[in-house]
Amino acid sequence: MQKEKLYSIGEVSRICNISKKALRFYDQIGIITPDVICKENGYRYYSRETLLTVPIVKYYKQMGFKLEEMQDLVEGNTYYFVKQNFISKIDELRIQEQEIHNSYVAVKDWYELIQEAQLVSRSKVQEVGVKYISTANYCYMDQPFSYHYMESIINIDWVNYLESVNNEIAGEVILRFPSWTDKMNGTSTSARIMQRPIRPCMEGTNQTVFGGNMAATVYHLGALEQIEDSYGKIRDWTAARGYKCGPESYERYVVDYWTTRNPEEFVTEVIVPIVSGPCD
Question: CA nearest 274: which of 132, 138, 169?
Answer without folding.
Answer: 132
